[in-house]
């Protein structure tokens, strides 16, 4: 006797798996980006979750939901070589024979020690590297950044694609400062801009605001501006004050240039404003007492060493005798991110790290290998 036919599907039954996927996706969307291991653990629960988390559409929704990429760690130069210090579970492979110049739009700009004629562009999340020949300008020291040049990109999730390199060199032999712009689509450097400069470039990370690169000179006593779009050129800006315990540059919410300076456990915040008559001047944005830092006395060593745009607030980094701390400028909370505080320059690295972006050789750096192997058995 033939078995009875299966019952007809109930109304809406076919759409149930899609509905469940949507609900799961909405839940996973809320996992914190500054704890990337949460996404990777979730991707190991089952094939369905792995498919959802690896999907490009989910990655896009995740970036838009959280609005700004998290700080995954920072690069610093130790014994002349770039080393990545994680502030999350993300741990990329070490770079070899390079030292760091800057981090921006998901990529680090490195100088090759074994091949000094080349710059390395490194994406720590994907572990992809690209190489650019150095510009033909005189330099004893240099600074610069990589900029994403993908048309229409909102720079939430920059990985690969066309790019620019804004680069400034300084020659102590009397040539002063030189700056030029590299475009990946043409593969050539622009005609250099020159500026006579008696001071020197600081190694602190530069910052991009609009169509200009801003750099510190002479321990923060001068700010250099390299306009790399339209009529290119170099110019100097006087800072609002001189701070013995460190200065960092930053973009501010209105799209202008900001600066933070540290003096005797007090952080001073400024922004550069232009009045209707076209005259620019510094305006105070606030003062923060760093009483949250574990500093025993006023003579304890501390130095302002970096800035990053976090997921919910701007962040500055301060190195002390007790280690390196990140300070949330909105909540004024301090969190230790590194036990050793010897670095005077750090390059914070911000990027979303999801199962859909990270490459296989890098993936196993996300967790302890034993932990990852155990999770893989579920």
UniProtKB/TrEMBL annotation:
Signal peptide: none
Entries under SUPFAM superfamilies matching the protein: F-box domain (SSF81383), Galactose oxidase, central domain (SSF50965)
SMART domains xrefs: FBOX
Name of a matching Pfam family: Beta-prop_AT5G49610-like
Domain F-box: from-to ranges: 19-62
InterPro entries referenced in this protein's UniProt entry, alphabetically: AT5G49610-like_b-prop, F-box-like_dom_sf, F-box_dom, Gal_Oxase/kelch_b-propeller
Gene3D superfamilies: 1.20.1280.50
Name of the protein described by the UniProt record: F-box domain-containing protein
Species, as recorded: Lolium multiflorum
């Amino acid at each position: 006797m033939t078995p009875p036919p299966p019952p007809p599907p109930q109304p809406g039954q076919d759409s149930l798996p899609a509905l469940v996927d949507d609900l799961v996706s909405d839940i996973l969307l809320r996992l914190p980006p500054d704890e990337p291991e949460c996404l990777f653990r979730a991707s190991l629960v089952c094939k369905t979750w792995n498919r959802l988390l690896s999907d490009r559409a989910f990655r896009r929704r995740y970036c838009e939901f959280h609005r700004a990429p998290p700080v995954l760690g920072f690069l610093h130069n130790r014994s002349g070589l770039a080393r990545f210090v994680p502030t999350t579970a993300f741990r990329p492979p070490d770079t070899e024979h390079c030292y760091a110049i800057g981090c921006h739009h998901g990529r680090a700009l490195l100088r090759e020690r074994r091949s000094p004629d080349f710059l390395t562009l490194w994406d720590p999340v994907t572990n992809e590297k690209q190489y650019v020949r150095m510009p033909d300008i005189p330099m004893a020291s240099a600074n610069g950044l990589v900029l994403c040049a993908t048309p229409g990109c909102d720079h939430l999730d920059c990985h690969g694609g066309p790019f620019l390199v804004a680069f400034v060199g300084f020659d102590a032999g009397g040539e002063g400062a030189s700056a030029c712009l590299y475009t990946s689509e043409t593969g050539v450097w622009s005609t250099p801009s020159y500026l006579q400069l008696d001071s020197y470039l600081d190694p602190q990370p530069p910052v991009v605001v609009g169509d200009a690169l801003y750099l510190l000179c002479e321990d923060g006593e001068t700010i250099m501006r390299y306009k790399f779009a339209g009529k290119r050129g170099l110019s100097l800006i006087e800072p609002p004050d001189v701070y013995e315990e460190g200065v960092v540059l930053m973009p501010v919410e209105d799209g202008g240039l900001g600066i933070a300076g540290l003096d005797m456990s007090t952080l001073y915040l400024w922004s550069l404003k232009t009045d209707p008559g076209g005259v620019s001047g510094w305006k105070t944005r606030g003062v923060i007492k760093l009483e949250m830092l574990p500093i025993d006395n006023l003579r304890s060593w501390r130095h302002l060493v970096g800035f990053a745009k976090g997921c919910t607030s701007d962040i500055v980094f301060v190195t002390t005798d007790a280690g390196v701390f990140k300070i949330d400028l909105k909540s004024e909370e301090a969190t230790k991110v590194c036990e050793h505080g010897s670095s005077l320059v750090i390059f914070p690295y911000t990027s979303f790290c999801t199962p859909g972006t990270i490459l296989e050789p890098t993936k196993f750096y996300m967790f302890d290998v034993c932990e990852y192997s155990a999770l893989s058995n579920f």
